[in-house]
Amino acid sequence: MGLFGLILLTGFWALDCSVIHEYHFVNLLLTWDEAKAYCRSSYSDLASVHSDEEQKLLYQVAGTPISKGWIGLHHTRNNWSWTLEDNHLYSYEDGTFEKWVDPPPGTYKQCGSFIIDQWSQMNCSEALNFVCQNADFKYFLIERMMDWNKALEYCRINYTDLANIRSETDKSDLANLVDGQRVWIGLHNRWRWSDVSIFTLHTDALPGIISMRDQFKCVFLNVSQSLVFNNCSLQQPFYCHKVLKQTRRLMVKIRIGMSSPYGLEDSTNLHQVILKQIHQELSKQAPQQNFTLMWKKELTEE
Q1: Is domain 19-75+191-243 annotated with CATH 3.10.100.10?
Q2: Signal peptide position in this chain (predicted)?
């Protein structure tokens, strides 16, 4: 891992620690949408959980036995996205270049494969060959049967990522490479919290009902501390969270060597590039947080 990659990783760790949610149980019988509106009016949003620590805090509020109630996790057919965070977020039925093989009615899959010239939903646990890409979007067929998560890990270790597709040209290149076989690509269907942050646990591990039907796209916490998918129009109690205000200062020391592609004579531009990339990455990791980045130059002896 290069120096800059290490800097970003360290920053993310510190940022995660700064997120604080205060949870509240509301014993009113409301639908999921009504509960979301109530939480946004009285607190910050329906409860979202992003760490083991926050999960423990939520369970403390839930009590023993657990008080059943809505949380902010939900799903729609419009959450398909690519593994490269800055790539286009595709809806299931939008008018761009992708072409879907519709699944049988009532089925639900989480990961995307590619066959001939079409996207296809599949269970993430199935084993397929897969296509990796490098930073220049050159594709590499890997003929090793793996599930989607293992394929993603393999590509990120040995290349850049699972294949992301940006255009008809990319799709044509990929089709020529795989020659008709079905392969994993970097397309997946994400669950999201009502505050639009990403659900980071893998959904294959979730208990409960999973269905493409609209009545089963909202989630509540049940008495056994598991997550259950249910009818969004069901009226039941719910959990809200309040984002607590917190200011933290994180200082990261960066040493720029002579190998910098920008050159030491253009250090101001280099500083701006680094700050811009850090800002972009922090915005992805914590879209609800405000932060300011500053560059302080340390004078050292020659």
Answers
A1: yes
A2: 1-17
